[in-house]
Amino acid sequence: MLQLEDVHTHYGAVHALKGVSLDVKKGEIVTLIGANGAGKSTLMMTICGDPKASQGRITFQGEDITHTPTNKIMRNGLSVVPEGRRVFTGMTVEENLAMGAYFQSKDIKEQQEERVLNLFPRLKERFHQRAGTMSGGEQQMLAIGRGLMDEPELLLLDEPSLGLAPIIISQIFEIIQQLRETGTTIFLVEQNALKALAIADRGYVLEHGKLVMQDTGKNLLANEDVKKAYLGG
Ligand code: ATP
């Protein structure tokens, strides 16, 4: 579904991604782990075309999107939930969700809204509440819900567990699994390596802009180097 071949990304003189090749197949949960500054968010955003890859090739559903404008990539089956759950704080849950389906037909909008509210009953209860007055966990649910409104084939999630209480993190990971079961492919970037690898079919480890390991989620969890570096020994 998604393929990266030898992708490089620069921010001016900073060489943030140094030849990344990976793939995500339909129906998978694929997790990317790595330390602070390894380039995880850069990889996520490069897939979305902002920043653009300075070298290499990105294909999504068989189409080369390396040079496609971000707004076009986002309208063709790919959604991203960026780090830091950037919901529109002055808008209600309903309005935030509607923004996620801005380019969709009324039918798809209604159908996706129903799906999101079933997945997140909490959002149903808060439907008319302004996002800025909701808890961090509720805002994260809303950010994911908004990402789903566009009916994506592939959902990119950047650190969905960041700054949340353990019980909320467990709920979010539950929901990520449910999403996969209902047909959405997931590419997940996480610092919470333990939980993220536990639900992943496959995982990649990024260090200093390069992939240094790839395996099944299960094998990475059992790997001594991964344990030492990312699972607290
Ligand atoms: P974190 O887990 O802390 O979010 P990360 O793995 O997502 O880290 P990135 O945010 O992708 O890492 O950063 C990778 C490298 O690129 C870092 O050295 C960072 O300083 C640099 N970088 C990121 N964004 C920019 C930018 N807009 N301009 C210049 N350098 C940047």
UniProtKB/TrEMBL annotation:
<protein>
    <recommendedName>
        <fullName>High-affinity branched-chain amino acid transport ATP-binding protein</fullName>
    </recommendedName>
</protein>
<feature type="domain" description="ABC transporter">
    <location>
        <begin position="2"/>
        <end position="233"/>
    </location>
</feature>
<comment type="similarity">
    <text>Belongs to the ABC transporter superfamily.</text>
</comment>
<keyword id="KW-0067">ATP-binding</keyword>
<dbReference type="InterPro" id="IPR030660">
    <property type="entry name" value="ABC_branched_ATPase_LivF/BraG"/>
</dbReference>
<dbReference type="InterPro" id="IPR003439">
    <property type="entry name" value="ABC_transporter-like_ATP-bd"/>
</dbReference>
<keyword id="KW-0547">Nucleotide-binding</keyword>
<dbReference type="InterPro" id="IPR052156">
    <property type="entry name" value="BCAA_Transport_ATP-bd_LivF"/>
</dbReference>
<dbReference type="Pfam" id="PF00005">
    <property type="entry name" value="ABC_tran"/>
</dbReference>
<dbReference type="InterPro" id="IPR017871">
    <property type="entry name" value="ABC_transporter-like_CS"/>
</dbReference>
<keyword id="KW-0029">Amino-acid transport</keyword>
<dbReference type="InterPro" id="IPR003593">
    <property type="entry name" value="AAA+_ATPase"/>
</dbReference>
<dbReference type="GO" id="GO:0005524">
    <property type="term" value="F:ATP binding"/>
</dbReference>
<keyword id="KW-0813">Transport</keyword>
<dbReference type="InterPro" id="IPR027417">
    <property type="entry name" value="P-loop_NTPase"/>
</dbReference>
